[in-house]
Write a structure and sequence with these properties.
Layout (H helix, E strand, L loop, with lengths): L15 H4 L5 H30 L4 H15 L5 H9 L8 H13 L14 H8 L7 E15 L6 H9 L6 E15 L3 E5 L6 H9 L6 E6 L3 E4 L12 H11 L4 H15 L14 H12 L6 E5 L7 H16 L3 E5 L3 H7 L2 E6 L2 E7 H12 L14
Parallel strand pairs: 3-7, 3-8, 5-6, 6-7
Antiparallel strand pairs: 1-2, 1-4, 8-9
Length: 393
């Protein structure tokens, strides 16, 4: 081939400003949508990991929760959105007579203000939109708690019989009573929770597990903060000691130092109304006097968690009013309260949520009036033994 016949070829310089298509508003919107999609996908991954790690969800549960979040968080298309998307379309060549008709129709249409784009929610806002309690401070966490007791069918009255039966390896038959079965709930800071249920349902046993008196066979209980239990007032008193000595003894059991008890001694005695009897042995006290002294010691400080088991009716009428006022002042100060009571009006008055325990299981958790109404309806079918000492009015 002859080189002479081949024409030289030169690369044409390209002016990108001339040949590139102009960047339209539609193009900008597509770019923004693409970047927003990337941001949302990253947030979605972080939210999924947070649900799995923080709330112990499985991957499928986390995915389902995220779908619920997306349904709540993503706004539906409105007519105004459709109208705006139609107006953003590229202009077409329209005949003059058609343009005049379009101008007339546009004059009759209402003006639509441009919508401000809402910023995308962050992960915490998305989670809190579907899990309302995610931002609250956890105070008590009960996970899969179960507890049972062994009950001997034959009664052994003395040590001699116990020793003989032990040697013969014949202690009699033992039955297992399941007191609590797979209890699960969370209580958050500042909440006032009432626990209701029939006699023998497991309410007091549950409080004993939360306070650490009974260790659970299965599951775990986590508490965050200082607990003041008002379970059996006067428990831990030495009946041969005086009231003065039992203040220091009982206070030491509850974890108070001697210096602290000395600073609060006068306040305890004054609140208990036992000034005249404080140096007498407590074996000479009545049950009401013991309860007064125990209540005064237990409520001398403002705890983070106050656990009460049927002790608001201790003492005479005046002390009952004083103790109720003390409990309300602790509630108003932000103390988390867990109250077991057979008085349904008292639960309604003092609590904002209720947990219904039935045969060792959680029957219902929710708003106090709703749970109490369901409980009262179910009580129509209960036996007399189950309803003993329960006050509905």
């Amino acid at each position: 081939m002859s080189i002479r016949n081949k024409k030289p070829q030169f690369k044409k310089s390209i002016n990108w400003d001339e040949h590139d298509e102009p960047i339209t508003p539609e193009h900008k919107r597509q770019v923004n949508d693409y970047s927003n999609e990337n941001t949302i996908s990253e947030q979605r991954k972080r939210a999924k990991l947070e649900l799995i790690n923080k709330y112990n969800m499985s991957e499928s549960e986390a995915e389902e929760t995220l779908r619920d979040i997306e349904k709540k968080a993503m706004p539906q298309k409105t007519k105004e959105d459709t109208y705006e998307s139609n107006t953003n379309k590229t202009e077409e060549i329209i005949p003059e007579h058609a343009q005049k008709e379009e101008k007339q129709s546009q004059e009759t249409k209402p003006e639509h203000k441009e919508k401000e784009e809402k910023p995308h929610k962050n992960v915490d806002e998305l989670i809190s939109s579907i899990i309302p309690d995610s931002e609250k401070e956890l105070c008590i966490e009960v996970k899969n708690v179960s507890l049972s007791f062994e009950i001997a069918t034959e009664k052994i009255d003395n040590l001699k019989e116990l020793f003989i039966r032990t040697l013969k390896r014949n202690k009699g038959n033992v039955t297992k009573f399941q007191a609590l079965k797979n209890i699960n709930f969370n209580i958050y800071k500042g909440e006032k929770i009432g626990i209701i249920g029939y006699n023998g349902a497991g309410k007091s046993t549950l409080l004993n597990v939360i306070t650490g008196i009974y260790p659970p066979e299965e599951g775990e209980v986590k508490t965050y903060g200082r607990i003041s239990p008002l379970l059996a007032l006067g428990a831990g008193f030495d009946h041969n000691y005086s009231g003065r000595e039992n203040i220091y003894l009982n206070g030491a059991i509850m974890g108070y130092s001697k210096k602290f008890l000395e600073s609060k001694y006068d306040e305890i005695v004054e609140f208990s109304e036992l000034e005249e009897f404080i140096d007498f042995p407590v074996k000479n006290y009545s049950s009401g006097m013991l309860a007064k002294l125990g209540f005064s010691i237990a409520t001398i400080v403002e705890p983070d968690i106050l656990i009460i088991d049927e002790v608001l009716g201790v003492g005479d009428v005046n002390f009952q009013k004083k103790s109720s006022d003390k409990i309300r002042s602790l509630m108003d100060s932000g103390t988390t309260v867990l109250l077991v009571s057979h008085s349904i009006p008292q639960i309604r008055q003092l609590c904002d949520k209720a947990i219904w325990i039935d045969k060792g299981e959680v029957r219902e958790i929710g708003e106090v009036n709703d749970v109490c109404n369901h409980y009262l309806k179910d009580a129509e079918k209960a036996t007399k033994d189950q309803l003993k000492d329960i006050r509905f009015r």
